[in-house]
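Weekly puzzle thread! Below is a chain. First person to post its structure in token form gets bragging rights.
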Amino acid sequence: MFATTFTMLERKISNNLNCLYLLNRPVYQIDHDKRLTPAEHYGDAGNVTAIELDNHDRFHISFASRSEMVLTPKKVVTCSDAAIGPSCEEFLQSFGYILPDAATSDQQRLINLPNILTPAPAPTTIPPAYIIIDCEFGNLFRRTNTPNTINWQVMKAAGLKTNVFQLSAIGFNRHHQTNVFFNRYFDNPDFLPEKKLAGLAATGLTLAQYERQGDPLTVIKAFINQVLQPALPLVFWDQTQDIKYLRRLIAQHYDQLTPSEQHAVTTPVTIFDAQAYTNMIINLGNHKNGYHNLPLNGLAAIFNLTNPNQHNALWDVQTTELVLQKLARLHQQAPTETPQPVPLATPLPPAPAPVRTRHQRRNAKYALVKKLHAHGKTYREIAAATGISISSVNYILKKAVNLHSQAGVTPL
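Winning reply:
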């Protein structure tokens, strides 16, 4: 499939800094002076594992902990297939890039951690047993006070402006619910107060209970023990954001986990993306593969499924399960191909009535008069029924008698 492999690629990004992808290294942003800094929005992707060009001139970039990226040639500034050496620094300097000194920032610490929730090969059909996961998020703010007002400004933590607010999971075996049932809220001091009030209202806990149960490390440990330890495939409607923030959350507290918990989060896990499965089913009867990326609750509505609490992680997990059941049935059906369009057939005109000769018309009239007379009709009734005069009826009947006499037949 792949015609060429590369060790380095620079990607052009409109209205932003370009990115550099270097084999077996994290993704870097390229500053205007060509200095490289870790790309914050790739913090969860891990190292670049492959850079390849397919037979259609498309570049495929693979990551340790994120699905591959596909670029067209117009998005590529430069690339190289040269070996990285004699050192990474010297290799980059040969292209004019400057690698930063070993960073001590939290961002760099996260990059240097082992890969977390590394995806194993994904199944192409719904696994028999699995755990569905969904997250809801909250933006991060920093409170600033002035003499008369309190202001909230959007802030970043570990390179992200958002973090997980609600984390939910339910286990299923052949579409029957199992004992895995997880629903926790994070008490993050950088959320707006409204988020905390929403979590308190949803859980019914006291403030002290909510803060104790919502401690991020406490939630992460419970998630590892209840959801990851069974080592079942994890199902997401769209894994992109959920898995990104879960990896970042776990990475932030990785050093506080026990060795067994660290082993659980660094063991490759099977991830089944239900949205990608939907794309596959849509494309079953198509000649080309398309990316439709249908929203969960929108697709549920097409299936006549109503979720009364949309964008609540626990309810969205349950909705995902119902949609999976519908999709599984669709997967078993063969596609129906659209028939060739044709116009409606034009009906044939009715056949014209046969044209009778004068002799045939006379014989038919004579036969009708004789038939009516044989049934006991009077001359007057025969004349009214046939539209001829009484004298003509008399003539026809007398002529018939004469014809029978000449033939030696006595009429009845």
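Puzzle host: Confirmed. Bonus trivia for everyone else. The chain has a mean pLDDT of 86.
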